[in-house]
Amino acid sequence: MRNLLEVNNLTTYFKSNKGLIKAVDGINFTVSSREILAIVGESGCGKSVTAKTILGLIGQKKNEIIGGEVLFKGENLLTKNYREMQQIRGKEISTVFQDPMTSLNPLHKVGQQIAEVLTIHEQISRQAARKQAINILTKVGIPSAASRAEQYPHQFSGGMRQRAIIAMALVCRPDLLIADEPTTALDVTIQAQILDLLQDLRHELKTAIIMITHDLGVVAEISDTVAVMYAGHLVEKAPVKLLFAEARHPYTKGLLNSIPRPGSRKKLEPIPGQPPDLHNLKTGCNFADRCPSVMAKCRQQSPLLKKIAPDHQAACWLYEEER
Amino acid sequence: MWRYITKRILIAIPVLIGISIVAFFLIRLVPGDTVTALLGANYNQEQAAALRADYGLDKPLITQYLIWVKNLLKGDFGHSFFTNQAVSSSIMERLPVTFELMIMSFIYCLLIAIPLGAVASLKKNSLLDYLATIFGLLGVSIPNFWLATILILVFSLHMGWFPSGGFVSFFADPIANLRYMFLPSIALGASVGAVVMRMTRSSMLEILKQDYIEMARAKGVSQKILIISHALKNALIPVITVLGIQMGYLLGGSVIIEQIFSLPGIGRLALQAITNRDYILMQGSILFVAAGFVIINLLVDLIYALINPQIRY
């Protein structure tokens, strides 16, 4: 199967007064059509920056330095200008952001905000766009969508808003949806509903999804493949079942150990320490300072993401000899 | 909506009563009265007493006030002690001048200050932004009477582009009218424009950081629509509040500006009334201006609700 999205050696650096911040530092991954890829990691590890770089929302300013390539249907998005990206954003690649409370413009009606996407990307009358907006609102499970479409965001609850935002993202039937922590700001019950909704829509609209999250529960629930990110690097990548059964990278293991399991009497083992300061990264593996199995080599050279088993990749010196 | 408007008008009543009291008693605290001003050097006791009796100024102050209010309620603003012209008709005669002055100053805010503030926020820390900031600071800190004097010196006396004072009605000769009004409206509008510009800039900067702006970009909205429909509209909400408050400043500032450019407006009318101790005329014009300010603020609040759906009256 041809890859829908191919990210090759993507780097996103920010120049700041304190020096260069390597937010994303050489990551590689692919997404095939209809796949759900989860990118997991702690806050500040570069997940959202990755998403925004793919969308071209980062890279316009002088202090933002982008490298590598992002091939979408074979075309490099990083070489496109703002106007060309405008054609792709919202139509072929769309986004759901983390906080539904702030992602909708408070001065525009919800239906209008959805219809706007259609009027931008398709030759369509206002009337027809409005009708389609109502249809998609119904599809994402908003009752009496026709009257709801005439309401303003403040009249919607958080879960309803996130549904509306998902409707907005999917109204043009994009090939790829980037969902940046779509459930983080929601109650647990609403979270489950939203995840179900995304699953259903994936099948119905044949959309691939990049799910960015720090919640391993969400990952287990929805994704096909998981990429674990730490301090701007991908440290492990595997199909979801394999990853949960046989996590190899010490960071992934640490993440899995820090989730509470119902019924288990075992004490939670949080990963000691804090993620490194991206301003002054030391040489060697970024995780070395927090790693329980750190070796001398880890402090000298950074490991690369390599295949350690079929379908399973990790960036760790522990598995270097096995190859 | 109508309930809200009615409520606001009812609230305005005590405000106007308060203003009428202040206007009435304040002018009487000033040494000298209408009669001393009228008689001037020919002042003598008998004549003065006769005139005071004539104007009803010999009655107790409370009685004078109540008579004035009683007449006001009947719609009668009284007659000027000096010209004997009806106060309401002198106000109506002067109103268009002040109104035009305010509207023109206001238009500068809309046409120059708001776009400049928006552009400055989009090009933050650029040369243009710094220039806008400098203009903003100058506009706020230069007193309008000084600016007016300098404008006259440079553009009227030195360059000879605009007349230094006087007035022609817009309906008589629109172009001459605009030439007469140009400098005064700049002198009056500069500081308000500066405040509005600063406010637009900071409000825009705040809005541009919002998630829904990023969301709009992610939807593929073009830069132009993004700025106008998604950012500026939201940014204008606090600007409108400031504009409403600044309208009061425009009204107050027009007194000095009309005097400097010898424009026959309400501000100048009030000033003349004060120098002449023309009590009735002064009270009438102050009350009128206050009522105007109350109405403007009501309008601002209504516009506010029109733009922001989260506010419903």
UniProtKB/TrEMBL annotation, chain A:
<keyword id="KW-0472">Membrane</keyword>
<keyword id="KW-0813">Transport</keyword>
<dbReference type="GO" id="GO:0016887">
    <property type="term" value="F:ATP hydrolysis activity"/>
</dbReference>
<dbReference type="GO" id="GO:0005886">
    <property type="term" value="C:plasma membrane"/>
</dbReference>
<dbReference type="Pfam" id="PF00005">
    <property type="entry name" value="ABC_tran"/>
</dbReference>
<dbReference type="InterPro" id="IPR003439">
    <property type="entry name" value="ABC_transporter-like_ATP-bd"/>
</dbReference>
<dbReference type="InterPro" id="IPR027417">
    <property type="entry name" value="P-loop_NTPase"/>
</dbReference>
<dbReference type="GO" id="GO:0005524">
    <property type="term" value="F:ATP binding"/>
</dbReference>
<comment type="similarity">
    <text>Belongs to the ABC transporter superfamily.</text>
</comment>
<feature type="domain" description="ABC transporter">
    <location>
        <begin position="5"/>
        <end position="256"/>
    </location>
</feature>
<dbReference type="Pfam" id="PF08352">
    <property type="entry name" value="oligo_HPY"/>
</dbReference>
<dbReference type="GO" id="GO:0015833">
    <property type="term" value="P:peptide transport"/>
</dbReference>
<keyword id="KW-0067">ATP-binding</keyword>
<dbReference type="InterPro" id="IPR050388">
    <property type="entry name" value="ABC_Ni/Peptide_Import"/>
</dbReference>
<keyword id="KW-0547">Nucleotide-binding</keyword>
<keyword id="KW-1003">Cell membrane</keyword>
<dbReference type="InterPro" id="IPR003593">
    <property type="entry name" value="AAA+_ATPase"/>
</dbReference>
<dbReference type="InterPro" id="IPR013563">
    <property type="entry name" value="Oligopep_ABC_C"/>
</dbReference>
<dbReference type="InterPro" id="IPR017871">
    <property type="entry name" value="ABC_transporter-like_CS"/>
</dbReference>
<protein>
    <submittedName>
        <fullName>Oligopeptide transport system ATP-binding protein</fullName>
    </submittedName>
</protein>
UniProtKB/TrEMBL annotation, chain B:
<feature type="transmembrane region" description="Helical">
    <location>
        <begin position="178"/>
        <end position="197"/>
    </location>
</feature>
<feature type="transmembrane region" description="Helical">
    <location>
        <begin position="134"/>
        <end position="158"/>
    </location>
</feature>
<dbReference type="Pfam" id="PF00528">
    <property type="entry name" value="BPD_transp_1"/>
</dbReference>
<keyword id="KW-0472">Membrane</keyword>
<keyword id="KW-1133">Transmembrane helix</keyword>
<comment type="similarity">
    <text>Belongs to the binding-protein-dependent transport system permease family.</text>
</comment>
<feature type="transmembrane region" description="Helical">
    <location>
        <begin position="235"/>
        <end position="257"/>
    </location>
</feature>
<keyword id="KW-1003">Cell membrane</keyword>
<protein>
    <submittedName>
        <fullName>Peptide/nickel transport system permease protein</fullName>
    </submittedName>
</protein>
<feature type="transmembrane region" description="Helical">
    <location>
        <begin position="9"/>
        <end position="30"/>
    </location>
</feature>
<dbReference type="InterPro" id="IPR035906">
    <property type="entry name" value="MetI-like_sf"/>
</dbReference>
<keyword id="KW-0813">Transport</keyword>
<dbReference type="Pfam" id="PF19300">
    <property type="entry name" value="BPD_transp_1_N"/>
</dbReference>
<dbReference type="InterPro" id="IPR000515">
    <property type="entry name" value="MetI-like"/>
</dbReference>
<keyword id="KW-0812">Transmembrane</keyword>
<feature type="transmembrane region" description="Helical">
    <location>
        <begin position="101"/>
        <end position="122"/>
    </location>
</feature>
<feature type="domain" description="ABC transmembrane type-1">
    <location>
        <begin position="95"/>
        <end position="304"/>
    </location>
</feature>
<feature type="transmembrane region" description="Helical">
    <location>
        <begin position="286"/>
        <end position="307"/>
    </location>
</feature>
<dbReference type="GO" id="GO:0055085">
    <property type="term" value="P:transmembrane transport"/>
</dbReference>
<dbReference type="GO" id="GO:0005886">
    <property type="term" value="C:plasma membrane"/>
</dbReference>
<dbReference type="InterPro" id="IPR045621">
    <property type="entry name" value="BPD_transp_1_N"/>
</dbReference>
